[in-house]
Write a structure and sequence with these properties.
The structure holds two protein chains of two kinds. Chain A is an alpha+beta fold. Chain A folds into four domains: about 5-70, Phenylalanyl-tRNA Synthetase, Chain B, domain 1, CATH 3.30.56; about 85-275, Phenylalanyl-tRNA Synthetase, Chain B, domain 3, CATH 3.50.40; about 280-355, 2-Layer Sandwich (Phenylalanyl-tRNA Synthetase, Chain B, domain 1), CATH 3.30.56; about 375-559, BirA Bifunctional Protein, domain 2. Chain A is built from 15 helices and 27 strands. In chain A, the strands form six sheets. In chain A, strands 4, 5, 6, 7, 10, 11, 12, 13, 14 and 15 form a ten-stranded mixed beta sheet that branches. In chain A, strands 19-22-23-27-26-25-24 form a seven-stranded mixed beta sheet, sandwiched between helices. In chain A, strands 1-3-2 form a three-stranded antiparallel beta sheet. In chain A, a hairpin with a 5-residue loop joins strand 24 (about 500-505) and strand 25 (about 510-520). By secondary structure, chain B is an alpha+beta fold. Chain B has helices spanning about 10-20, 25-30, 40-50, 70-75, 80-90, 95-100, 105-120, 140-155, 165-175, 200-210, 220-225, 250-265, 280, 315-325, 340-345, 355-360, 405-420, 460-465, 480-490, 500-505, and strands spanning about 25, 55-65, 125, 130, 160, 185-195, 215, 230, 270, 275-280, 345-350, 370-380, 390-400, 425-430, 435-445, 450-460, 475-480. In chain B, the strands form five sheets. In chain B, strands 9-12-13-17-16-15-14 form a seven-stranded mixed beta sheet, sandwiched between helices. In chain B, strands 1-6-2-5 form a four-stranded antiparallel beta sheet. A two-stranded antiparallel sheet of chain B has the order 3-4. In chain B, helix 1 (about 10-20) crosses helix 10. The radius of gyration of chain B is 43 Å and the shape is elongated. The relative contact order of chain B is 0.09. Classes of the chains: A alpha+beta, B alpha+beta. Chains A and B meet through helix 8, helix 10, helix 11, strand 19 and helix 13 of A and helix 12, strand 9, strand 12, helix 17 and strand 14 of B.
């Protein structure tokens, strides 16, 4: 979940409201699916839960949502002038960083605090929405330093310029190896022969996206009121939406936005794109479908008002209801692309009206409550075992190959995880015995005898690789006099209580002492194993008293 | 009330002895009566004295002196450091340093001996050094050697009362109650009591002899019917019981059992699923785009190569793929990317309980229908006091023609009240990729304040329609580990699955007041 830090003063000034205090603010923030993470003096840390709303990851975005809910929809990026500046894109960037969007913002001179906020937004968008600058990353420049048209070039790694914060010219490959930022983002250019470079028509380098700006043009200071903003990246949608969000934010601050025409070479699909792109996603819902979701009748007019307070660019009441009924057509503001279905618009109506306005209701239709049969069986077995004096254990499903194979000598190999976090949790258990042995190895100080059991899920894989979840039941008795007879009696009484036939057939199993180990058959089907644990296994686990155990498939107890 | 209690067998033995022998001392009784040992005698005597069945006739306290660790060392050295020092000075030693070269005692003991000799006026120190100011043979240190060390060496019991005053006061000084390892002497008090039976004691004894008192009920007592004319010895009922370790169900499993029971009571049918899933059921069927951050390799455990989870139906895969790419027939414009069918088949460990719901929706569920499942899920977290390698989630769905937002809120309220036992809760808009609208419930915990009470919503049409469901579906889910910790009073999540049996035996659980058990 994205978290942002904002100045309260800035937030409420932009939202045009009094600071309501943290408690009330917490309620109001439900409008943006936000929570107060922490609050200290003028600084507020907000957590924003909607991962599809990058427009909210800035003080301008949150303030806009609060402002519009109080005062109604605003117009964003309308009546922009015709673009009179251009960017030309080189062929050869298709597989590295193909897309660029840009605009200029003039007439707003940020002070240092506002400039810091702007840089924060730029970084938050690149980090969270732009996947750490991969799919999109933005940059700001002083407009007056740039000679148009600008070229988004595909250049050789030997090209050189003076990067921001350095004194001398460096080649692009030097930047990737010799600077910290370079090393951080080098992987984004891996495998490409040509690398991206923004350059103006005077031959001045603006930046080496997405790594570093240039020392000459790539620096903005407090008080600069004429800015050039660009976004480059690998994902068209992310690049465009980032640029549009930044443009809306700057417009909210009081800047005038002028668009820029981006000219792409063959083989790009669209030849020219005017940016920022004014998105206008349209959603249509019949009043009937709105009622079906809400469970209450609201008038088309109140639906429209609700959406206007969510800053919809346009809301029309019309006859789109399918069967001739009334419907609502809403157009999202340009900074939002999260409306892909009518339900998304309906949720905006609900949020705008407020969840507390809806009376909770219980479904009236009768349904049957029923336990899963295998869980019923597990319960029966667990209660019988507890009655036999056994203590139930609960162990994690993830374990290590060492515990299953090396220490316990389990004959079958457990399914392993391809990307384990640590070897300690590198496999999925296929037996419960290592878990019970681990309990013994850590419980020597607990009063004996120990009679412990677990019923639990394990994962087994067949020859063909198909895997299956199974519930096993394992029981272990450990103490100075623990022997085969102890666990034999327990499974004997379990089978007797369930009226099923138990028989044992001597078998060889490395985990148990030869001649004291048997395959368990229940109603003549082989279902598990029982035996006195081999001293080598006890020794592996550091257990200093004899132990016996059995393990069966729980389903065998059905008979 | 004393006469109402019967005599304990030990009490009776002591009374019998006193009745037959008259007044007797402790030593006599322990040696000659039928009481098994001194401890039994003391207990019986205390009981009887408090019931006034026995009287204390006299009480003598005598003090005896014995050598403590320093005294024993002195005896081994053949002198006390004071005596030895007087001898050294007599022989011409003039400084403490000089004396300390003698290793019969360590420098510290020489030092303190020097201190007490100066203090007692036996030595003095001037510019020439140390001089004797006494006759060594007339000092208290000589007396104590002759009157205490020597007789004790001969095995004689030495009463304080027999010793001269100056010796006694030195003994008291040098037998502190604390720091016995640095003491020279110890003084022990021996108490000798004379007891006799009282008139009440005789009456009680007579009554006890006339009535047969039954202790343990034996089969013989039952068979002979001797209990008909007997008294039952009364037990002392308030002594602490001895501990037993009962067989019992695991506290967390009991918690989960309670959650299950309550869902079943509310008319939900239990779902079961698999620990391993493919990405199709875990994510794709839930309309989570394949580029969603929660599907990243750093958030999900992939199973090793060659491990498979059975493929989903081909037609179903196509419907889901279309919903992702362009919305298909769901009325959505989809996520607008190219869906990878291969990625769909990647086997992973279930990362969310909602996978159960997806499978249930695709397998022709009852409409109206209510389902729930408790599922073990896996997330990519470092194990610490707030994260386990796997955790339990409860997941519920409700299907029905008429289901809407108000029913969603109604069910959440039901869960808050019936399952969590909360009286205060609130609903907030939430975000989940598979539901719209989405709601988060927070419930009020009396100790911790607002805590998460689960995420919920109506499944998106892009989830339901490809799975063959054309009625609204409420979905609800909640991680249970934290709730269980609250109920069980645990602070480290790892204690939920502790392998330490003694720790497990200490975890208390009250299944009738789970979830909000603490501070309830």
């Amino acid at each position: 979940m994205p978290k942002i830090e904002v100045s309260r003063q800035d937030l409420f000034k932009l939202a045009r409201m009094e600071d309501p205090g943290d408690e009330k603010l917490a309620d109001i923030l439900s409008l943006v699916k936000g929570e107060i993470d922490s609050s200290e003096g003028d600084w507020l840390k907000l957590e924003l839960n909607d991962t599809n709303r990058p427009d909210l990851w800035s003080v301008e975005g949150v303030a806009r949502a609060l402002r519009c809910w109080n005062a109604g929809a605003e117009r964003h990026l309308v009546e922009l002038p015709e673009p009179d500046m251009e960017i030309f894109v080189d062929a050869g960037l298709e597989n590295v960083r193909p897309f660029v969007a840009a605009f200029t913002a003039c007439g707003w001179a940020p002070d240092q605090k506002e400039l810091d906020a702007l840089i924060n937004v730029q970084e938050k968008l690149a980090a969270s929405f732009g996947k750490n600058r991969k799919t999109a990353g933005a940059g700001f420049y002083r407009l007056d330093d740039i000679e148009f048209p600008v070229r988004y070039r595909a250049v050789s790694p030997d090209t050189s310029f003076v990067p921001l914060g350095f004194e001398r010219e460096m080649t692009l490959s030097e930047i990737l190896t010799g600077t910290e930022t370079g090393r951080t983002y080098a992987h984004l250019l891996k495998g490409a022969d040509l690398w991206p470079l923004l350059e103006d028509s005077g031959g001045n380098v603006l930046s080496f996206p997405p790594v570093l700006n240039s020392q000459t043009t790539g620096r903005v200071s407090a008080g600069d009121s004429r800015l050039f903003c660009e976004v480059t990246g690998t994902n068209w949608e992310t690049v465009q939406l980032s640029a549009t969000i930044l443009a809306c934010n700057l417009q909210d601050r009081g800047a005038e936005i002028s668009p820029i025409r981006v000219n792409y070479p063959e083989p790009y699909p669209g030849k020219t794109v005017v940016t920022p792109v004014i998105f206008s996603d349209l959603m249509t819902a019949s009043m009937e479908s709105i009622h079906r979701v809400l469970g209450v009748d609201i008038s088309p007019e109140s639906a429209r008002k609700a959406l206007q307070r969510m800053d919809y660019a346009s809301v029309e009441i019309d006859g789109t209801g399918g069967t001739g009924g009334t419907g609502i057509t809403g157009i999202l503001p340009p900074y939002r692309r999260d409306g892909i279905h009518a339900v998304d618009m309906i949720e905006d109506i609900i949020i705008s009206i407020g969840l507390s306005s809806f009376d909770p209701l219980l479904p009236k239709q009768f349904t049957l409550g029923r336990c899963a049969p295998i869980e019923d069986l597990a319960d029966a077995a667990r209660i019988l075992l507890a009655g036999a004096g056994c203590e139930e254990i609960l162990r994690p499903v993830l374990t290590s190959r060492e515990k299953v194979t090396d220490l316990t000598r389990t004959p079958k190999t457990p399914v392993s995880i391809a990307n384990p976090m640590t070897a300690e949790y590198g496999v999925v258990r296929n037996t419960l015995l290592p878990g019970l042995l681990e309990v013994e190895s850590t419980s020597a100080h607990a009063a004996y005898p120990h009679r412990i059991f677990e019923t639990g899920e394990v994962l087994t894989a067949a020859e063909d690789g198909n895997c299956r979840t199974e519930i096993l039941l394992a029981c272990l008795v450990c103490g100075n006099k623990a022997d085969f007879g102890d666990v034999h009696s327990i499974i004997g009484s379990l089978c007797h209580s369930r009226a099923i036939r138990l028989s044992l057939a001597e078998t060889d199993d490395n985990r148990f002492i030869p001649g004291r180990c048997a395959a368990i058959s229940i109603n003549d089907r082989v279902s598990g194993v029982i035996g006195e644990l081999h001293p080598a296994v006890l020794n592996n686990w550091g257990i200093s008293r004899p132990a016996s155990a059995f393990e069966i498939a729980l389903s065998a107890l059905k008979g | 009330m004393t006469e109402e209690r019967d005599l304990h067998p030990l009490e009776e033995k002591l009374l019998v002895y006193l009745d037959e022998n008259g007044k007797s001392s402790d030593v006599e009784i322990v040696e000659k009566s039928n009481l098994p040992d001194e401890g039994s005698y003391r207990r019986a005597a205390e009981w009887l004295l408090s019931r006034e069945l026995v009287r204390e006739i006299s009480r003598d306290e005598e003090e005896f002196v014995e050598l403590a660790p320093l005294g024993i060392k002195n005896r081994e050295a053949g002198a006390t450091p004071e005596l030895a020092m007087l001898r050294e000075v007599e022989r011409g030693a003039r400084s403490l340093q000089e004396i300390q070269k003698n290793t019969a005692f360590d420098t510290g003991r020489w030092g303190s001996a020097f201190g007490s000799l100066i203090k007692n006026g036996h030595l003095k120190k001037d510019s020439d050094g140390i001089h004797l100011t006494c006759e060594p043979e007339n000092t208290v240190f000589r007396k104590i050697w002759d009157l205490v060390y020597e007789p004790l060496a001969g095995g004689i019991e030495l009463k304080i009362a027999q010793l001269p005053e100056d010796v006694v006061s030195l003994i008291y000084d040098r037998s502190p109650k604390r720091g016995k390892s640095r003491a020279e002497f110890s003084v022990n008090v021996l108490v000798t009591r004379m007891l006799n039976i009282t008139e009440e004691g005789r009456i009680a004894l007579r009554a006890a002899k006339e009535n047969i008192t039954i202790g343990a009920i034996t089969p013989k007592v039952l068979a002979e019917g001797s209990w008909r004319s007997a008294n039952f010895r009364r037990y002392q009922l308030d002594i602490p019981p001895s501990q037993i370790h009962t067989g019992r169900l695991h506290p967390y499993r009991q918690f989960l059992d309670t959650v299950r029971k309550r869902f079943i009571a509310l008319g939900f049918t239990e779902m079961r699923g698999s620990l391993a899933e493919n990405e199709f059921w875990n994510n794709d069927a839930l309309f989570m785009p394949q580029f969603h951050p929660a599907r990243d390799i750093h958030d999900v455990y992939y199973l090793s190569d060659g491990i498979k989870v059975p493929h989903p139906d081909r037609e179903l895969t196509e419907r889901v793929a279309e919903a992702h790419e362009n919305g298909g027939n769901t009325g959505s414009r989809g996520w607008g990317y190219s869906f990878s069918r291969e990625r769909s088949l990647q086997a992973i460990l279930r990362s969310q309980g909602t996978a159960l719901s997806a499978r249930t929706l695709a397998s022709n569920p009852a409409i109206p229908g209510k389902y729930f499942g408790i599922a073990r899920c896996f997330r990519y977290d470092q194990v610490d006091s707030t994260h386990l390698p796997d955790f339990f989630q409860v997941e519920g769905i409700v299907l029905g023609e008429q289901i809407n937002l108000r029913h969603l809120l109604g069910l959440l309220r039901l869960f808050a009240e019936e399952i969590a036992g909360a009286s205060d809760y609130k609903f907030l808009p939430g975000y989940f990729p598979f539901t719209e609208p989405s709601v988060e419930m927070h419930i009020f915990h009396p100790v911790l304040g607002w805590v998460e009470g689960g995420g919920a919503g109506l499944f998106r049409p892009e989830v339901c329609l490809p799975l063959g469901i054309d009625v609204p579906v409420i979905a609800w889910g909640l991680g249970l580990d934290r709730m269980a910790m609250l109920a069980m009073g645990l602070e480290d999540i790892r204690d939920l699955i502790t392998p330490d049996l003694s720790k497990l035996r200490r975890i208390m659980v009250q299944p009738d007041r789970l979830l909000l058990g603490k501070g309830d």
